[in-house]
Write the C-alpha cells for this entry.
Amino acid sequence: MEWETVIGLEVHVSLSTQSKLFSGSSTKFGAEPNTQANIFDAALPGTLPVFNKDALRMAVRFGVGIGAEIGKRSVFDRKNYFYPDLPKGYQVTQLDYPTVGKGSLTVVLSDGREKEIGVTRAHIEENAGKSLHEDYHGMSGIDLNRAGEPLLEIVSEPEISNAEEAVAYLKKLHTIIRYLDISDAIMAQGSMRCDVNVSIRRVGDTELGTRTEIKNINSFRFVEKAIHSEVQRQQELIEDGGRVIQETRRYNADRDETTPMRSKEVANDYRYFPEPDLLPIVIDDAYIEAIRADLPELPDAKKQRFVEEFKLSDYDAGVLASSRELAEYFELVAKQTGDAKLAANWVSGDLQALLNKNSWEVADCPIQAERLASLISRIKDDTISGKIAKTVFETMIEDASSVDDIIEAKGLKQVTDSGEIEKLVDDVIANNPDQVQQFKEGKEQVIGFLVGQAMQLSKGKANPGQVNALLKDKMK
Amino acid sequence: MIEKTVAELSAALAAGDISSVELTQTYLNRIGQLNSELNAFITVCEDSAMQQANAADTARAGGDSGALLGIPIAHKDIFCTEGVLTTCGSRMLHNFVSPYNATVVERLNSAGVVTLGKTNMDEFAMGSSNETSFFGDVRNPWDTKRVPGGSSGGSAAAVAADLCAMATGTDTGGSIRQPAAFCGITGFKPSYGRVSRWGMVAFASSLDQAGPLTKSAEDAALMLNAIAGLDEKDSTSIDTPTDDYTAGLNNSLEGLKIGIPRQHFAEGLNSEVEQSIRDALKEYEKLGATIKEIDLPNNHLSVSAYYVVAPAEASANLSRFDGVRYGYRCEDPVDLEDMYKRSRSEGFGDEVKRRILVGTYALSAGFYDAYYRKAQKIRRLIKNDFDEAFKEVDVIIGPTSPHTAFELGSKSDPVAMYLEDIYTIAVNLAGLPGISVPAGLVDGLPIGMHMVTNDFEESKLLNIAHKFQQSTDWHTRKPAIKTEEA
C-alpha cells in the first residue's frame, strides 16, 4: 500500500528582548533560579501586565521578513490551565487575531528542487517557568526566570511531505530568524523548540488522516528521527487494522520511538477569552513600513546577489548565505582579496570545518575575516602556495600574530628565486633519470611526479608554476 | 470633630485647631469602641497610623499643605498595602502580607494621608451584603441587625460610623454605590480606566474600578484629585487629562437636563424609596434642572450579562490562588492535584466557588458563543442605550437600590442577592461614572440616589451631587449607633 505523509510544524522561538513580555524582569539566560522574577512574574494579587513593544517590533519584523500579512489589530487572549510553573493559571497568547498572518518560506531540497511551504500564522505569547523535580525530597521546585519571556509561535500549513522537508523548513526558519536578529534560536538551549503534527493517508486520498502531535523536540536531527519513527508507527498501526488516535506524544531519542504523553499533561479545554488587562495592539502602515525599511538583506536575496556579483555557484552561494555571520565574513574576505572564488572555497571549506569542529560561532573564531583575507592575499601574490597556506591557517588558530609574521617566523616564504629553482630542478632531473626518460618518450603526465619531488625537496616552498615551466624547458 | 467632612477637617488642620495626631488618636479610640460591634475593620494599623500622623504634623509645621495631609483614611482590604495584611476578605489570603502598594494607596500616601487600617469586605468583592467575608459579617451602623451592603461594606460602615474620615472602595457591579446607599454616605465610582487598578486584587478586570466612600461629594472630589490619572502600570488606565475635580463643584445647574429611566421606576421598587427619589428630583427642579423620562431598553439584560462576564473573568483571575506561592495551602497534600483541590476547596468560600464554576462553565468549549460572546454583545447594546440617552440628557438619576438595607441572613437565594445590583450594574458594563448620595430616610434607614453621567464626566457628576448636598442635609444625618448590648 502506498502512503503519503502530511506534516505541520509549530515552532516556538524566544524573542531576544531585554525584558519580559509583560514585566520589566531581565531575560538573560542562565541566572540563578528566581532572580529574574518580579511580583508580576510570580502573579502576586493585583499585579497587571504591561506589553513590551519590542516584542511587537520583532514579531512584525519576522512577518515582514517572510512577506506575511501583518495584523493591524492583534488581541491577546488568556489560555487557562493549572500548572505550578504557570503562576497566573493562564498563559497570555493570541488566538483569533495574531500579529502575523499568512506568509511562506521557500526551501531548497537535496535534489535541488525548490518548495514553497506556507506559514499559517505567527503569534506572540508568554513562556512558562520551569519545574525542577530533583533535589527537593519528594517536592518540586519552581524557577520563574523563564516565566513570561516572549515567544513567537510560528505555525506552518500542513504542506510538509517528509522529514527532509521538515528539517529544511526548520533550518530556513532558523536562518531567517538569525538574519532578522530577533532570537538566538538555539535549539539546544530551548530558544527554538518544535512541535510536529504528523498524519498519513493513502496516496490519492483528499481527506487528511488523524494526526498526532509530537511535543517539544529540541534538535533538527531528532525532528527527522521522530518523524521517521512516527510515520512508521502509524503505517504499521493502520496496516494491522488499527486506527491512529489524535493525541500528544513525546519522542524518546534513546529508544528512537514516540510514546503517548499522560492525559493529565494534556489539558483539553483551555477556555480562551480575550485578556481584559490588555488593550488590543493597533498598528498602522507607517509602523510596518518603518520596520520594512530597517530589514537587512535576507538569505534568498543574498544568495542571489552572491551568484550574480561574485559568480559563485548556486550551491556555494546557498551554503554561504545560510548564515548571516558566515555570509558577512565571506563578503569581507572576497572584497579584500578581490578573489571571490578563492574566498568562497576557504570560507565554506577550511573555515566552516574549523567552526564545526570546535562548535564555534563566527564571532568566537580566532581567525577573523581580515586575517583570512591577508592569508589569501599571500597566496595570490605568490608569497606562499595554497598548500603552505593550510599550514599557516593551522598556525593562525593558536597564534594571533599577523599572517606575514607567521610566514616569516616559520620560514614558509615561497621560493621564487630562479637560481634556487634551477638548482632544485637540476637535482630532480639528476635523481630521477627513469622518469625523465619517460617524459622524453612522450609520457607527459610524469611531470606531476617530478614537480612533486621538487616541492618535497623545497619543503613545499618552491613556486610550483616556476618549477613546472623550468622542468619542461630543461627536459626538451 | 470626627463626624466632620474631609474638607472641614482639612481646614481645621490648616488652621491648627487640631493636629493629625489628635485626630488619628480619636478615630483609633472610636474604632476600639465600635469595631467589635460593627466588624468594619479586618486590620487596624495603630502604630503606623500614629507615625504617619506625626509625620503629617511635622510636614505641616515645615510648610507642607494639601487637602489630604494628615487625614485618616481606611482602605478596603482589596488594595495591596506594603507590609500590611491584605486578605480580600478571604481565607485564601488570610496570611498574605503584600510586599507592595497599590497605585491608589501609593498616591494617597503621597498626598499625606494616615492609614488607620483595612476594611472588611465580601470575599474577593463577590457579594452585596458583606456576608461572604471570611472575617465575618459587617453590621450596618444604622441598625446592627442589618447588612451594610457590599462588597465595600466595611468601608461604608466605617465612614458612616465615623471610624474614619474617608475610605477607599471598589465597584464591579455596584460595590461602592450600594453600600454607600445602605449606610447613608456618598459613594463614587469613576469611569472605567480613570483610576489605576494596579495593586487592586482583581475580581472582573473589565469592570473593576476603585473610588471613594466619603461624607460628601466634595470629599469624593478631593479624594479623586489624589487618585485619578494615567498609570503606566495599568494598561487599561486612560490617558485623558484629569481635572481639578473640586473646581466645578459649585457650577450652576440652570438648564441641566435630567433623564429618569422608566425601567428604574418600575415593578420591584419600594414605594417609599421611590417617593424619596421623586422628592429629591424636585430639589433639582428648584436648582433650574428639567426632567424627562428616558428609556434604557436593554437594562433588564444587564444582571444576566454581568453574571456571565464577571464570573468568566473571575474564574481566570482567581486561578493564581493555587497554594503554590503564597496564601492558603492545605495541610499535608499527597500530590499536586490534591494540593490544588484542597487548597482551593478550603481556601475559597461558597459564593466565590459558585462564581468560579459559573465562569468556567460560560467559557467552556461549546458554550462560549452562547454565553460569553452573547453577554459581550449585550454589553454593547447597554452601552448604546446610554449613548442614546446622553444625546438628550446630561445625567441619569434613579434609586441606587430598590429598598433600604435588609436584615442579615434574610437573602439566602443567590439570584435574589444578584438582583440587588439591578440599577447599578449597567453602569459598570458601560464603563460610566456613577455616584450614590443620601436622599432620604425610610423607617430610620438611609436611601441612596444614583446618578450617572457620560464617560469621563466626573466633574459634571460631582457638581450635580454637590449642589444637591448644598441644598439638602441628608448627607449630614448620622446613625445613632445602637449596639445590641446597649
